[in-house]
Amino acid sequence: TIHHIRFAKADVDLLEFPLNLEFFEAEFFYMGGSTPLGAKKANLDHFTQDVILQFAYQEVGHLRAIQKVVKGFPRPLLDLSKESFAKTVDLSPPFDPYYNGVHFLLASYLIPYVGLTGYVEQFQNSKPLVLEGVESGQDAVIRAYLYEHAKEIVSP
């Protein structure tokens, strides 16, 4: 497990930024920790709700693993409001990630991508990449589910 791995000082320093990415993922998937601004329970079917809950548990595991290695620092209050997502996904009418399961998974697809690219860029030949496998798995599950809806027109 990750707590048995010895990390170089440079890796420990680099883990502090992904710690905030993990908080972002965990709070979006599970709304753990302090309540982020604007986050609300998404309108999900039972299958999607279970998948997202499993992702949340994985992210809590990531947080615990990273916090065993680095002290971390107070994270900023996150704005997970539909208005914040609408700024990133610039559509008319505005995109609401909480509207339904497909919307939530489209928004969720952005999150492991951010985490995955962050790990790959920062730790190209390093031990912290053990977390990369879970991020890649989340990405694959989301893509598979969205592929089932590939022929649907998704209104914002």
Explained architecture:
It comes from Quercus suber. Pfam families: Ferritin_2 (PF13668). The chain is mainly alpha-helical. It has one domain (2-147): Up-down Bundle (Ferritin), CATH 1.20.1260. It has 5 helices and no strands. The chain has helices at 9-30, 46-69, 82-88, 101-122, 132-147. Helix 1 packs antiparallel against helix 2 (46-69). The termini are far apart. 26% of the residues are buried. The model has no long low-confidence stretch (mean pLDDT 73).
Determine the mean pLDDT: 73
Number of helices: 5
SS strand fraction: under 5%
Calculate the terminal CA-CA distance, rounded to whole Å. Answer: 41 Å
Shape: globular
CATH class: Mainly Alpha
The total number of structural domains is: 1
From the alpha-carbon coordinates, what is the Rg to the nearest angstrom? 16 Å
Number of strands: 0
Structural class: mainly alpha
From the 3D structure, determine the CATH topology.
Answer: Ferritin
Major β-sheet, in short? none
Low-confidence stretches: none
What proportion of the residues is helical, as a percent range?
55-70%
CATH 2nd-level architecture? Up-down Bundle
What series of H and E elements makes up the topology? Answer: HHHHH
SSE layout and pairings?
Layout: H1 9-30, H2 46-69, H3 82-88, H4 101-122, H5 132-147
Record keyword descriptors for this entry.
Pigment-catalase-like; 5 helices; Ferritin; single chain; 58% helix; Desiccation-related protein pcc13-62
